[in-house]
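note to self — DONT lose this again. spent like an hour looking for the file last time. sequence + predicted structure for the chain T wanted, 320 res
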Amino acid sequence: MNIQKATQNGIVKHSNIERANEIFTNVHADNTNDAYQKDIELYLNWCEDNDKLPKFENSFFEYLTELSHTLKYSTIQRKSVSLSKNITGLDKKALSNFLKGVSNITQKEGNTSTGAKAVSIEAVKKMVDYYTPDTLTGLRNKAMLLTGFFGALRASELINIKKEHLTIDADGITILIPRSKTDQTGKGQYKFIPQQFSDYCPVRALSSWILESGIEDGFLFRAIKKGGKMQDNGLTRQNAYMIVRGGKTKMIDKKRKIVYAFPEFSTHSLRAGFVTVSSENNATIQQIQQQTGHKTAQMILHYTRSKDVKKNNSVNNISI
C-alpha cells in the first residue's frame, strides 16, 4: 500500500499500514463478538482499498459517511462504537454531532422511502454499458451486475460467491449459495442462470470474467487495484454498491467527491428488479420464490405492488 508520510507538524508519521492493522485488531482481542470483529475487518478492508490509515480520525469519518448512503442509523451507530476506541485523538463531540446528523437524515429519508427502486431490463443494460468492456474491471462489473440480477441475489450472497460454488454446463450456470439471510443453518440453496442469446448473457459474462481473471478458486468477484492488479479478497458491500450506482471519485471545488451515474439504485435494486420483471412476464409467485429464496409470498407481493395497483385493480372497471 502506497501511503504518504504525514508531516511532523501534522498527523504523527506512519508508513507501515500492517503495523496499524495489527494494533487495531488486537484491541479487545478477547472480545469474541462476531459483529464487532466484522466491523473492524470491513473497516480495515476499506482503508486498504482507499489508501487510508485506519487509526486516523479523518479516515474514520470518511468511512462512516460512505456507509450512511447504504446502512441504517442503528448499524452506523454500532460500527462507530466498535471502531471509535481505536481512533487516535478522536473528537467525541464531533462524533456525537456527526451521529445526530446521520440520525436526522436517515429519519427524513425513512419517512419517504419506499425501499430499493427496482431496476428494469433497460436499466441493467445501461449499467453494464457504463463500464469499459475490454478491461478487467469492466468484465468483472458486467459479470457481477448480470449475475446479481438474473440470480436475484442479495448483496451478501453476491459478494461471497466463490469459484468452487459454480457448476457450468451447456444449459447455463448453477450457483451454490452456502448460507443466506433466510438460511442461517447453512443448508444451502442453488440458483440456476440459463444461457441467453444476447450480448448481455450472464453466463457468457461470467465465463469471460473467469477466463480473463484466471481465478481458479476463492472469491469470484474480487477487488482490483489501480493499474489492474487483482486482489485475493472479495468485494465489500460498499464496493458492490458503488458498482451498481456507477460511483466515481472526482475533484469538485478542490475536494474529492463521489459522483453517481445511477443514483436512484442500490445493490438491492438488482434483486428487486428480478422480482418485478419476472412478475411483469407473468411468472407465478412460486416460480419467483424458487430463484429468490423467499420463504413467504409477502415480500414478493411487496415488490410487485406498484404494478398490481395499476393493472389488477377493480377501479379500472368503473367509469363515470
